[in-house]
Structure formats: C-alpha cells, structure tokens
Amino acid sequence: MSTESIMVRLRRANPVPQAPAGEDNELFARITAEAADSRLTERTRPRVERRRRVVVAAFALLVAALLASTAFAISQWIGGDVVPPPVTKQEYLEAQKELSLPPGVKWPKYNMGEPNSVTNRGAGGGQAVLVAQNAWECYWVDAIKRGDAAAGQQAHNELNKLLANNIREAPAWASENWAPTPLPDHPVVYFAHDGGLAWVKNNYRQAAGGDPTGISQSCKANAPG
Amino acid sequence: MGMTETHDRHAAEARFRAVFSHLGAVAAYARRRGSRDADAVAAEVMTIAWRRLADVPHDDPRPWLYATARNLVLADLRRASFSASEMTEDFAPAPEVVELDPILGAALLSLSRLDREALLLVAWEDLTPTQAARSLGINPAAFRVRLLRARRRLRTKLEDASTGRRCDPNAHLDMETT
C-alpha cells in the first residue's frame, strides 16, 4: 500500500465528508454584539492620539522656547531691552576702563547670577558705577577717620565726577529699572526719583564738612556683597 | 461613539465576517475529532476569534480556528472523561457523522496524537502542509517530516491489521488517546 493510497483511504474515511453550511446570522449578530477586540477598534484612535500628542508637544516646545526667552520677549513688548548675564558682565568689565577705584581697591568679581536670568542692557555699567561710588565713599570715610584731607578730597572729586557723568535720576513717571533710549555710550546708573539721589548728595555735603555719618552708612549698606 | 470608533467597528465586523464563514468547517472539525457538541465548540471558537480578532491571520484563518477548536475539544473530552458515568444519549454522534472504518480507526488511534492530527489535518481538513504546520504551531519542514513518518506508521499499522495483527478494537477516535 503506497503512502498516497493511505491518504486516499483516509480521505474516503472522513466521518464528516461535507462541512455544514457556515451561515448563522443570529450567531454572528450575537457574537458581534459583544465588545470587539480592543486592539482593532483602538488601533486608529492611538494614531489620532499620537497625532494630537505631537501637536501638543510641538506647542509645548514652542511655549518652552518662548518661555526660555520670556524676559527678552516681554521686555521687547514693553519697549525695554534685556540681555543675558554674559553681556552684563562684559558691560561691567568695559565700564572698569572708564571708572577708577581708590588705591588698593580691586574690582569685585561680577556675580553672573542665574544662567537664564536677564538684566536691562547697560546694567553692567551701572553696577560698575555703584561699585566705584561705594568704594570712594568708604575711602572717604577712612580718610576722614584718618584725618587724611588729601585722600578725602580725592574721594570727593571722584564722587563728584560720578555724579556728573555716571549717576542720573530717572524721571518722576518712570518705573523701576528705567533706562533711557538710546542708552548713553558710557556707564551710567539711574536712581529712582524717590529722593535717594538727593540723600546721597546731602551725605557728600556733610562729608565735605567733616561729618562721615551719611557716607559711612552708605559705605556699609552698599558694600559689595 | 465617534465616527472613528464606528468605522473601526464596521471594519472589525467586515473582517470577522470572513472568519465567520468558516463556522461550518470548524464545526465539522470538532465533529471529526470526536466532539459531542461540535456546534457549541464552533460557536465558542468564533466568539474567541471575535474577541481576539487581531490574532486571527487575515489571509487564512483556518489553521488558527482549528487550533482553537482543538483546544476546546480536548478540554471537552477531558471533562467528559471525568463524568463518563453521566453520559446520556445527548452524547451520541451527530447524524452526519459517518461510521469510521474500525480497522482504520484503530490504526489511527495507535498513532501518537501529533502524528494522527498531522494526517487528519491534511486528509480531512484539506489543509496544505504549511497550513497544517501553522495549526500545530510547528515548522512546515518539520511538519512534512512528521507527516511522512505518520503515513508510514499508519501504513504499517494497516498492513499489520490486514495480516492479522490487530490494533485495539475498543479504541475510540478522540484526541486524548496517544
């Protein structure tokens, strides 16, 4: 008996030679009334979800990018001009070339602050002016205490130069951190229109009269920290 | 239900319609393997197929359906063997079931379950060796070797039977027997 005849014999012996009709609409309806395979019915939904997520992610990225430059953008909207720490530091360093410090005093290292922070353009120069102002005030206090009239006079002269060239008072209507447009081409610090500058000038008048109280307070209060 | 979900469901039903067209073939398979309630087995197979439609091959669902039916029939037969004493005439073969040649039946039952199933998938379910291999979850090349050996073994058994060396005449053709 060949293997082929074995298969023929087997086929002939099929106990159910004809498969019954497979149509059973009632059964079909009953089965499909149940929840379908979720992997099929949700197959397109994740695509939509994914597309939606991509859009949301893109939007989030856009927002993040905007936020990263928020201060810059906002300042642009309100007419200001802000710069990142490296620019401010450079302004600070450049201003040192135009300003002087008392003998033996060194420029303090500029504190860069937060990497993503921003500062008004020109603030680096203004910082240098304040450092110089404070240094000369302290120097003057020491000069008065030592009775060194020449040193006191030198300090007075330097502070007057600062008042003349590098210290300004913002307009009465100006907000905090106001700066003019365009900015001056040399380092300038702007005091708010709140009497602060008048107090400074008064202190200098008192110091010139031999009373270091005012500049001594200012020396301590505004010492670089 | 949104438009997308409705469309998905219609697509799933259309896909299942093609699978469901094999309902009769699955019922026949269950009967050939000794199921006493082949229609229920076929209905159960189709229900499983609907729930797991993503697993059912698009191109040819029959191997998957037969494999599922095989598992259900085996489970049924195991249950039946535990309660054989409760058998009633409800378990009698369906009218369309042809009496199997006892010599051939005994020869088949003397084969291993896998050998027997390999032969029957090709001879009775009319699957190609590749389809049958898929239904058994084995490599097509391995299936061909198994089929060849199964044919030889069956031939030997039948030859033995024809020369007087009888196979077990009391054997029943169900898939529990190896």
Q: What is the CA–CA distance across the termini of chain A?
A: 108 Å
- Separate helix tally of chain A: 10
Count the helices of chain B. How many?
8
**Low-confidence runs of at least 5 consecutive residues of chain A:** 71-79
Overall, the morphology of chain B is globular
Overall geometric form of chain A: rod-shaped
Radius of gyration of chain B: 18 Å
Q: Roughly what fraction of the amino acids of chain B lie in strands?
A: under 5%
Give the helix level of chain B as a range of percent: 55-70%
Structural class of chain B: mainly alpha
What's the helix-strand series of chain A? HHHHHEHEHHEEHH
The overall pLDDT average of chain B reads 82
Q: State the secondary-structure class of chain A.
A: mainly alpha
Quick one: which chains have the greatest interface? A-B, 35 and 50 residues
List the secondary-structure elements of chain B in sequence, H or E: HHHHHHHH
Multimeric organization: heterodimer
Q: Could you characterize what this model shows?
A:
The complex is a heterodimer of chains A (225) and B (178). By secondary structure, chain A is mainly alpha-helical. In chain A, 58% of the residues lie in helices and 4% in strands. Chain A contains 10 helices and 4 strands. In chain A, helix 6 (85-96) crosses helix 7 (123-146), helix 7 packs across helix 10 (213-221) and helix 9 (196-208) crosses helix 10 (213-221). The N and C termini of chain A lie far apart (108 Å). The model of chain A is unreliable at 71-79 (pLDDT under 50). Chain B is mainly alpha-helical and 178 residues long. In chain B, helix 4 crosses helix 7 (129-136).
